[in-house]
Each structure stands twice: as C-alpha cells, then as structure tokens.
C-alpha cells in the first residue's frame, strides 16, 4: 500500500512538473510605464504564451543584468547607444528574419538612423523613439520668467534663469549619456564629443546649475509634473506628454507643455532585442513579431504617447499622437535632432566620474 501510494504521489508530482515545464512563456524586460497592458493580455489570448513582464527605469540597470549573463529574459528593450555597445560585447543573438513576417511594416526613416547602432538592423527592431527635451508647468514658468513658452535650453543651462525656478522645483534626468550631450550642444560643441576640454566645459556648466536642481530622477517626474509638485524637468518626450494628459484629465489647474529647444535635442531609439542566452528565443520572436503588427504598434503609441518605427501603424494612430509635433516632429525640427554613439571604456570612466561629481555638487 505504501509503495503504491508513494508511486501515485511521485507520478502526480511528475505530471505537475511536466505540465509546468511545458507551459509556453516569454520573459520581457521593458521600461516602466511603457506599454498598454491590454496588449500583453491579447498576445497571451491569441498565442497561448504567458508573458512574464518586468520593468526597469534606466539603461544602466538593464546593462548590468545583461553583462552579468543569465538575465533570465527573452526580450529586452535597450536604448540605441547601449544596444551598440552590448552587441559588441556579444550580449544578443541575431534575429531570425524569417520569423519576423511583419517587418514590411517598418519605417525606413527610423531603420536607417538605427543602422548606426545596429548595422543592418540585424539584432533589433524599433519599439519606440523620441526626444529628450524640456517639460514644464506653463503657469509657473510664466510667473517666474515672464515667458509664454520655452523654446531654448537656456532655461536649463543659464544659472540666472534656473535660479528663479529653484523654489518651484527642478528635476533633471539621472542620465549622463543624455544630459552631457545636451550641455555640449548648448555650448555649441559636438554633442558626441570625447574631447577632454569639451567634457570639462560640460562639467563646469552642469556644476553651475547644480545648486538649483532639487533631484536627479529616472521616471517619477511624470506624476510630479502632473501634480504641480515641480515646474521644470528635462525628460523623455512621451513621459512628459503623459504628464500633460494626466494633468488635463485631473483638471487640477496644472498645464504641462513639452519643448524641443531650438538649439536641437537628442533623438533616441528603444530597440527590442533577444539576449544570446534567451531560454525562449522562439517565443521572443513571436512576441516581437506581434508587436510589429500595425494595429498593435498603433495601440502602444496611442497609450504611451511616443512615436514608433512602424510606418504602417501611422494610419491607425490617434490624431493627438500623429498630429502632435512634439511626438512626430516636422522635417525642420527633425534636422536639428542629433544622435550619439556609445562611449569607449576610457571615456565612459571619465563620464562616470563627471556625473558623480555633478550629482554630489562638489
């Protein structure tokens, strides 16, 4: 009887274990506040593949996991500059293009710009792209600076002007690879410069405005700006536009706007890629191909208010997305957008020290 019972228990355990291991799954690691969760549910319903979805709030967090190996993820979404460095480190596997049947939907304008990070777009597919600019509380800025709208980086990088905003709250992105190029560009230098003197000039400029910065952040400025807790931030276009709409929906008296300054701004690309050691690479391709559908990509952009690299989706975008020049800039603004390449290890060490000094204010 004992032997029979033991055999039954073991058999049941084996059956449960086999069923669990047979469950189809795809493990996704993406930026926070960056997808309509209905998309995940609809993918699961259509394919039977369970999505385990985790989020991060900085490229550095993602890169640490990827370079350590055995991240456990099947699809990750690094920004182009980090992607390029990670490709060189052998972090990703080449995509099987035969499994990406929706690639005809892609927008050549974006694919061509991504090519500098991922030659031939062999390792990645664009998820979203956008700009890094200035988000602000319209009324607070008008009250303190006497201007109706922001159109220049001098509001951020002129210490005299930023000092007038200290009381209402200034947040800067905790992202040296975005703030340092912005400072260089404002100074009239190459935003992608590695020159020692140029980087020193950027450091001096950032230190000059440091006393007026309340906080360096990754994503919490969305709610802080919408609630009226701060009046100025440097942030990502879609995040600030989400903040604008949250404030409007709350009808709380806060009006948020976003500026791509006349001096130009960083254009960045967030790319879907598959780690070399992904346990569910086939499911990863199915997930990416699903996201590449025009209706799915349109749903994603309509939710997060970011532009995407899917040309076919544009006919399905809401008018307040496709028609908003802050999301899809006009050709003149596009010409003023710059891109940057990843830093080499020596320069990266300089950047890390520089940024640590800026954040500490000493």
TrEMBL record:
GO CC aspect terms: periplasmic space
One matching Pfam family: SBP_bac_8
CDD domains assigned: PBP2_PotF (cd13659)
Alphabetized UniProt keyword annotations: Periplasm, Signal, Transport
Signal sequence coordinates: 1-22
Keyword Signal applies: yes
SUPFAM superfamilies found in the cross-reference section: Periplasmic binding protein-like II (SSF53850)
One GO BP annotation of this record: polyamine transport
GO MF, one example: polyamine binding
Record's subcellular location: Periplasm
Family: Belongs to the bacterial solute-binding protein PotD/PotF family.
Function: Required for the activity of the bacterial periplasmic transport system of putrescine.
UniProt name for this protein: Putrescine-binding periplasmic protein
